[in-house]
Amino acid sequence: MSYMALYRKWRPVTFDGVKGQDHIVQTLQNQITSQRIGHAYLFCGTRGTGKTSIAKIFARAVNCEHPQNGSPCNECPTCRAILEGASLNVVEIDAASNNGVENIREIREQVQYPPTEGKYRVYIIDEVHMLSTGAFNALLKTLEEPPSYVIFILATTEVNRIPITVLSRCQRYDFKRISIPTLVGRLKELTDAEKIEVEDRALAYIAKAADGSMRDALSLLDQCVAFHYGKLLTYDNVLEVLGAVDTSVFGGMFRAVVGKDTKACIYQLEDLVMQGRELGQFVNDFIWYLRNLLLLATADDAEQLLEMSEDNIRMMKEEASLEEPETLMRYIRVFSELSNQIRYSSQKRVLVELAFIKLTKPAMEQNYDSILQRIQDIEDRLEDGSFAAAGNAPAGYPAPGPFSPGGAAVPAGTGQPSGGPEMGDPRPPSSFSQTGSGQGMPGDFPQGGTAALTAPQQVELPRGQLEDLNMIRNEWGRIIRQIGGSVRSAFRSTVVEPAGESCLCVVFTSPDAFAIGNRPTILGEIERYVEGAYGKAISFKARLAGAGERFDTIYVSRQELEEKIHMDIQEEDF
User: Fold this and answer.
1) CA 474 to chain centre
2) For the chain, percent of residues with pLDDT exceeding 90
3) CA-CA distance, 61 to 71, in Å (whole number)?
4) pLDDT in tens, 474-490
5) CB 417 within 8 A of CB 432
6) Where does the record place the AAA+ ATPase domain (predicted)?
């Protein structure tokens, strides 16, 4: 006997063998046991979800001589005849190739004759959306009032193409995509029965690639087993056969994109091409990878939505924190457009390379998304101070000048710019710090452009408290940027001040920002991050600054106070 494909060999023959469509199976079984059988059914849903299989099981069940809980026995002469395709009571029609009016007229002539055996004549019309308009019109009257012994079962993957006049005459059943755990469980049963050795991770990837289709999952498994027949089917074997890419590669690609390293992206893509990976599959998988990152960055308890190991989730959380959700959405849009273009292109590699250049060089595009990312890049450089450093202007942006946004005039002897504040800078917008101890924060510049400064107050702190204060102030912008979310937006222009042993206070100038930042959950998140990143157990509290409050206090240690190491500030006319 010739070999039979797995999806044909293991097609379910009873309702119990159907996986992932319990809501439909239970309804049909109840109709059969209660003898409340309809005359027309419409099965709609994506490919490979069991529409035709359930239709055939239902056709045997309504004619079975000894039904068992609504399922056919598959032992009586009627069931065996239908299984062997020898019964005239069950007629299966492919509407893709029999879609004319004359084909429907033949059905109308046949339904006049009752079944020679069994109770019902069942017509299964597959891909019914392919019928012509005339064929649908010819079917309407028969579909609405067929003889009592006739049942129509219409199956389609495109229910939107079915005329409303047909829909209104049928009981509609929507077939769901089969979940990955259900697919993995079924594949495990079949491989055990077929004595096929396969890794669980390999089955999980096949189930994911099947996209909710049991038939696709069995076909992919058949393909992989044939290539590695008689050997253990591993995860790497499956990737090799399907031309897919391991998820760790996506992490490397994403980090290269975040680092704006176009060269690294192109080299990694070159490696994939040389390995024979299918670029269309790579694009689709990378879109899903970006989608998972976006969920981790925006949704609460997103781990429940992702079917992957804890190690992978932990790694992806780190990567999700590297970019803003808005930027991730832009990446997804770029690759979604690429997915549509690459299907019909003969230069797939060029299109993929162009997409990576778009991601790493937003200045080369003029659309809304790229402009937003370019603004975000400028803000990031303002936060970490690299934008203000002379000679460090990024490609595509103007170098900071004496009065440019990134290069404000520097008062002599301070070594610090007097321009706008960095996001999350512990100094207020009108302050700048002295060199030396690094804590000086004199008062505002007046409108005239000269630094008319009053003497700041000096406060002595224990050495340990001063070290903690200096460390957090120096790292404050990076801390809130890495935490991201509501912390990043609420903690702009905040001031960090000492509040006792191993305790710091965050001073807010905005009541709205204070309402967010004063929450215990937010402050606790900062405490956990500082302890994990710097090994310091520092508690944080928050307060709202008073009207006209100054933030120019200089915190020094006893040794600095005794040695009187204070740098004079020189005034300079511009």
Assistant:
1) 35
2) 16
3) 5
4) 888 888 888 877 677 78
5) yes
6) 37-179
Q: What is the average pLDDT value for the chain, to the nearest integer?
A: 79
Alpha helices in 74-199 (DSSP H): 77-83, 101-110, 133-144, 164-167, 180-193
Which residue matches tokens 């010819």?
A: 138
Rounded to an integer, what distance in angstroms lies between the CA atom of residue 509 and that of residue 551?
11
Residues with Cβ within 8 Å of 561's Cβ and at least 6 positions away in sequence, in order, are 458, 460
Q: Count Cβ atoms below 10 Å from residue 268 Cβ, excluding itself.
A: 18
Supply the pLDDT for residue 398: 44
- Closest to 8 measured CA to CA, from 42, 48, 47, 64: 48
Residue whose pair of structure tokens reads 């309809």 in the numeric block:
38
Among 118, 165, 160, 115, residue whose Cα is nearest residue 142: 165
Q: What is the pTM of this model?
A: 0.55
Where is 209: in which H helix or E strand? helix 200-210
C-alpha 275/C-alpha 277 separation (Å) is: 6
Residue 382 has pLDDT above 80, yes or no: no
Residue position matching structure tokens 């700048």 = 432
Give whole-number Cα distances, 503 to 276, 468, 536, in Å: 57, 9, 11
The answer to whether 495 and 506 are in contact (CB under 8 A) is yes
386-397 pLDDT, tens digit per residue, is: 554 444 444 444
The whole-angstrom separation of Cα 481 and Cα 491 is 10
